[in-house]
């Protein structure tokens, strides 16, 4: 990227305290720890308590990212989420107000599991255009609130959580600068990952929704195949744009969809699997929040260190996908 760059200046994350194990889910569904671990790599996930909402998670992650970045107020807040507190209005303005950021630009981005990377690109665009010098990008999901109590497959995969970064205006060559971003979509796959009811298509019928249509559904097999292909292709695009070879990548921070998907993406790129950041065993697939949560966890446990070259890649409903490259900066972790 040329001109005014967007530089990662702070990071924060949050998961709700309630831990749900595979054993807990096997009491509710016809499933077991062995199937979940071997087919997905997931051991535990966090779910919000009854009455909680996405904004609660977003405020926690956002306040930590602001503190990590030194506390200066941003001029804009971008919130990526699949599970807004309400269909209308967006959740971002309430999050901004609760963070004490009254009257800043604040809006939601909807790109499901690619949400963070779309939010990051949007934040970088606000900086590049001179709209503001500082943007808080949050991805937060209370995904458990849209899981069907009768669908064992989706119910074991997803978890709740939030991650956030502060972007500031800076130099393209400094650590933390977003070096390249690739985004894409394919609406012909709209039905592969969806909540059918609640939007204008269903509401215009004037009929009440079927209960099962109010929940998240996913066609696992084609999603699996598409996820691997799209993340690998988008990663290659970003590597080409930034001028890195595969051997230059120190850490692959892929969307934490499924351990088998992460490994397949690494294999396709011919990147050693050991370079992949993995935290889905503890937090499962937190949709849009998964990349910033993985970044924050890896930075906290020392697997992700300043100076390392990081390739981020994600795939999600829409269909949407994206990738980004950054040299990891030295950050205050709070
Ligand atoms: N516990 C036990 N058995 C389960 C189960 C569960 N929670 N969920 C599904 N099964 C069963 C299926 O019913 C099927 O049984 P059958 O053979 O008798 O019909 C069997 O396990 C195999 O199902 P299959 O769909 O082939 O499993 P899979 O290995 O493809 O794994 C997913 C299923 C969903 C884990 C996998 O397809 C996947 O990860 N897809 C992508 C998900 C994703 O990343 N989504 C987010 C992208 S943004």
Your description of this structure?
This protein is an alpha/beta fold. The chain folds into 2 domains: 5-170, Peroxisomal Thiolase, Chain A, domain 1, CATH 3.40.47.10; 179-327, 3-Layer(aba) Sandwich (Peroxisomal Thiolase, Chain A, domain 1), CATH 3.40.47. The protein has helices at 22-28, 33-40, 54-68, 92-98, 115-128, 152-157, 200-203, 220-242, 259-269, 280-283, 290-301; strands at residues 5-14, 19-21, 44-46, 76-80, 105-109, 134-141, 161-170, 178-185, 193-195, 216-218, 251-254, 309-316, 320-327. The strands form 4 sheets. Strands 1-7-6-4-5 form a 5-stranded mixed β-sheet, sandwiched between helices. The chain starts with a strand and ends in a 7-residue tail after the last strand.
């Amino acid at each position: 990227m040329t001109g005014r760059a967007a530089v990662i200046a702070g990071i924060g994350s949050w998961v709700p305290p309630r831990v749900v194990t595979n054993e807990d889910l096997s009491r509710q569904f016809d499933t077991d720890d062995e199937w979940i671990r071997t087919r997905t790599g997931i051991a535990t996930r966090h779910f919000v308590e009854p009455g909680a909402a996405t904004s609660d998670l977003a405020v926690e992650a956002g306040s930590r990212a602001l503190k990590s970045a030194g506390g200066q107020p941003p001029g804009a807040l971008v919130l990526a989420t699949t599970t807004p507190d309400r269909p209308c209005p967006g959740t971002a303005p309430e999050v901004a107000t609760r963070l004490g950021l009254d009257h800043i630009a604040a809006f939601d981005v909807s790109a499901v599991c690619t949400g963070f990377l779309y939010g990051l690109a949007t934040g970088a665009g606000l900086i590049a255009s001179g709209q503001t010098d500082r943007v808080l990008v949050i991805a937060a999901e209370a995904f458990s609130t849209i899981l069907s109590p009768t669908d064992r497959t989706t119910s074991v995969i997803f978890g709740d959580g939030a991650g956030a970064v502060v972007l500031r205006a800076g130099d393209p060559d400094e650590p933390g600068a977003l070096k390249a971003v690739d985004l894409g979509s394919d609406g012909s796959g709209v039905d592969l990952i969806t909540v059918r009811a609640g939007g204008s298509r269903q509401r215009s019928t004037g009929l009440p929704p079927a209960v099962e249509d109010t929940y998240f559904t996913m066609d696992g097999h084609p999603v699996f195949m598409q996820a691997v292909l799209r993340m690998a292709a988008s990663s290659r695009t970003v590597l080409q744009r930034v001028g890195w070879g595969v051997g230059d990548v120190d850490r692959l921070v892929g969307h934490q969809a499924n351990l088998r998907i992460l490994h397949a993406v690494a294999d396709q790129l011919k990147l050693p699997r050991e370079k992949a950041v993995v935290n889905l065993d503890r937090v499962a697939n937190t949709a849009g929040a998964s990349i910033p949560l993985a970044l924050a966890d890896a930075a906290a446990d020392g697997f992700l260190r300043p100076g390392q070259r990081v390739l981020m890649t994600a795939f999600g409903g829409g269909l949407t996908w994206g990738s980004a490259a950054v040299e990891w900066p030295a950050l205050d972790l709070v």
